[in-house]
Amino acid sequence: MKRIVMLLLVLVCLLSACTRDSGKKDMETGSEHADKGSSNGSENNDENDSVNPDEPGWKQDTSPVALDWYVHASWYTGEWGKSLVSKYITEKTGVDVNLVIPSGNENEMLNTLIASNNLPDIISIGFWEQNAKVLMESDMVHALNDLADTYDPYFFKVTADGSSAWYTYPDGNLYCYPNESYSPDQMTDDVLLKANQTFVVRKDIYEAIGEPDMRTPEGFLNGLQLAKDYAADQGLTILPFCFQGIGDMGSYAFESYIQNFLAIPFEEDGQLVDRFTHPEYIRWMKTFRQAFEKELITLEPFIDTAAQVEETINNAGYFAMLREWTSLEVANGLIHDQDPNRIYIAIDGPSNANLDKPLLYPGGVAGWMLTMISKNCENPDRAIRFLTYLISEEGQQDFFLGKKGETWDTIDGRDQLLPDMIDLLQKDYTKFTNDIGAVDTYWLMRNPVIVNKWRPEYPDYIKQMIEWTRDKVDTTQGLYDSIDPPADIDEGIMLQKIKRLWGRVLPELIMAESDEEFDTIWAEFIAERDALGFETVQAYRQMQLNDNKAKLNQ
Amino acid sequence: MMKQHTWVKRLKRQKQRQLMVLPGIIWLIVFCYIPIFWLVIAFKEYDITKSALEAPWVGLKYFKEFLSDERFYTMLKNTVGIGFYKLIVAFPIPIIFALFLNEIKGTKFKKFVQTASYLPHFIAWPILGGIILSWLGKTGIINHVMITLGLQDTPIYYIAKAEYFWRIAVISDVWKELGWNAIIYIAAIAGVNPVLYEAADIDGAGRFKKMWHITIQSIRPTIAILFILAVGNLLNGSNFEQIFVLRNNMNLDASEIVDLYIYNIGIGAGRFSYASAVSLLKAAASLILVLGANLVTKKLTKESIL
Fold first, then answer.
1. Do B157 and A303 touch (CB under 8 A)?
2. Which of A50, A294, A486, B204 is deepest in the core (most CB within 10 A)?
3. CB nearest B30 (choices: A15, A248, A504)
4. Membrane-spanning regions, if any (chain B) (predicted)?
5. Contact A189, A145 (CB under 8 A)
6. Chain B residues within 8 Å of chain A (Cβ atoms)
7. CA distances in angstroms from B91 to B83, B178, B223, B228, B230, listed in the order given
8. What is the pTM of this model?
C-alpha cells in the first residue's frame, strides 16, 4: 500500500513538473515568436521603406498563410472555406482563416487559452466582456498601431478616428479595433440611423380590437385585456405579453429598454442619475404589476427557456412584446409565409406622462466585438494587413457582396446582390450563409456605415419595424456604453451583487399582490442595494462617463 | 530486495489487468491530483495571465468574504437541504427496488423492468431538464393529471414556486438514477449463496422473512459502503447540472446552491481565487462528512472504507 502511494506521489510530481515545464516552453516559444516578430519587423523595415502608405499592405504578399481566429460567441455558425465568399477572399489575399468557436461556455475556453498561453492569432470578443480588458492589460496582444507602423501604415487610412480614439488606452496604444462602431461624426448621417428596440403587437389581433392606444398605463392594460378577451372569444391560445432577456441578473426589457421608451434621462447637469428611481419608471413597473394581477402578464415569459420563448414567437403565440426587431426577423418571415396578417408590427408603446417620443439606443462608438492580434501570432505582418483589408471599403465589399459577376453586379448604377442571391437570402438563410457566405455571415469586422449602402431591401414585414424606430433614435446614448466597473475590482463585485439582487427582486415586484406590497419590496430593494455599495458603483460610473466624454471630445 | 522482486513479478503476471487500470490512474492523476496544487490560488490574488507562483498571498481573505456573503445562509441551506433530502429519499429507494426486483420470477419481465428503469441515466440533464420543465408546465402532463384526479383546481406553475423546488429536484433525481443505482445491489444480491434460502425454506421462513434475514443481511456491507460514499457526496448530491437546468429567477431561494455560486463567480465573473476558496471550503466540509459517516458506520456495522 505504502509503496503504491509513494509511486503515485512520484508520478504526480513528475507529471506536474512536466506540465510546468511545457508551460514554460510555451512561454519561451511565445517570446520567441515575439522576438521573431520584431526581428522580422526590423528586416521588413528595410523592405518597408519602400512601402507606400497609400497602398494596402496585403497586396505585397499574397502567399498562402493560415490564421487562427477565435470568436467569443458559441452561437456563431460561420464556417470558412466552404462558402463562395470565404474561398474568394482566401484566393485574393492568400489568407486562410481557421475559425475557432467555443463549443460550450465561452469564458471556459478563453480562460484556458489565456492561462495556458495558447492564444490563437486573432481574437474577437465583446467590448463588455471581462476578458477583453484582461487581454489588453496583460501584454498578450499586440498594439495595432505598432504593427501598422511596421507592416502596414495603410491601417491608419481605413480606421475611423472616433472608434480609434474610444479604444486608445491611456498608454497611447490601440490594442483592438471594434466592429459595428459608429464614430460620432458618422452618427449624424440620419439615413443610416435605426434602433433595435421595439414594442410589437400581432397585426390581426391589434386590428380586430380596434387599434387601441397603448401609450398610457390605462391604454396598455386596456389593449392587453381586449386582446386577451378577443383571443378567448376566438378560441386562440395566445399569451398577452412577452418581454426580452430574462436571466439571473434581471430582464433587459424591464431595465434600460423600458427606460428608453419612457425617455428617462441618463444625466442631469453632467451628473449621472439613477434611472431606476425615476417616478415614470416606478409608475410603469406598477402598471406591469397590475397587468400581472389581471393575468395580462403570465408566468411563462419568466420561466420559459429561450428556446421555448422562440418557439412561441415563431407561432405568433404572444399578442404584444417588448422585444428587439432583429430577434424577430426569422419569426416574422415564418409567420408571413403562413398568414401575412399575423405578423408582428411595431406600434407606439409605453410612454411617459407627456407622451414624449422614446429615446432608443442606435448603437454607439463602442460597437460590439473587439478584434485583437495576439502576441502568439507567428505572422503578425499578415494578420495586421488582413485586418486592414477587412476594415477597408474594399474588404467590406468583398465580405458583404462577394465577387463581382458571381454574386453581385452594378445594376441601375447601384452595387447589389444578384436577384437570385436575394431570393435565396430571404427563402433559406441557412443555405445562403453556408454556400454563399455574403451579407451578414462574416460580421466580425462589419462596419454598418459602409455596408448598409449595399444591403438588400428588407421585406416589408421587417421594414415596418425598422421604420418605426427611425425618428426615435438617441445618438448620444453611445456615451453611456462601458461605464460599468469590471468584475474583478471592488466596485465590480458590488455591481455583480446588486445585479443578482435585482434579478431576484424583479419577479417579486411584478408578482406583488398590491401596490402597497410593491412599495414595501421596492423600499427593501433600495435599502439592500445601498447597503451593497450602490453609491460607490455610481461614483465609478460617473468617473468612466467623464472619461468617455473626454475621449469623444478629442 | 526479495520482496520487490515478487512485487515486480506480480505486476508482470497481471500486466493485462494493470494495463486496463492504467488509463483510470492517469486520468485520476491529471484531473484530480495535479489540480490539487492549484488550490493554492485560494490563498492568493491570482491573475490568469500570470503564473500562480507569482501571485501575492492574501491569506484567508476569500474565505472570509464567502462566510460573510449575504447569500451564504441561503446557499448553505439549499446545498445541505437538497443533499440531505436526496440522501434520505434517493438512497434507500434503489435498495428497495432491487429487493423487489429480485422477487420477480419471470426473467423477461424482470429484464424489461431493469432496462427501462436505468435508461434515463443515459440521458443528459440538459435534455432531461427540458422534458421535466415541459411536464411541469401550465399545460403539462403533471397539471393535467393532478386536475383530472381532482387533487388541484387550477394549474400550478410548479417550477416557479420555491416551495416545490426541492421535491422536484429529488423526484427527478430518483427517476433518473433509480435503475442505475440499483445495479450494484442487484449484483450483490446475485452473489448471495442460494443454500441460505433453501435452509430458510426448510425452517419455514416466508418471502419477507427471507428478504429481511438473508438478502438484506447479505448485502449490508455494500449498503454501508455506498452510504458512506453518499454522505461524502451530500454537498455534491444537490447535483450542479440538474439544478442548473431547473433553476430560474423565481425559485432561486430554494435552488441557489454553492456549486452554482462557484460557477457564477468562477466562470462567469472570472474571480478564480474566490471560486477556489469556496470550492476548497466545500471540499473540506465534504471530507469531514465522509470521515464522520465512516466512523458512525464502523461503530454500527463494522464496515468502513478506510
1. yes
2. A486
3. A15
4. 21-43, 82-104, 116-136, 178-197, 218-235, 274-296
5. no
6. 7, 25, 29-30, 33-34, 37, 47-51, 70-71, 130, 133, 138, 157, 159-160, 248-250, 252-253, 264, 267-272
7. 11, 9, 9, 11, 8
8. 0.84
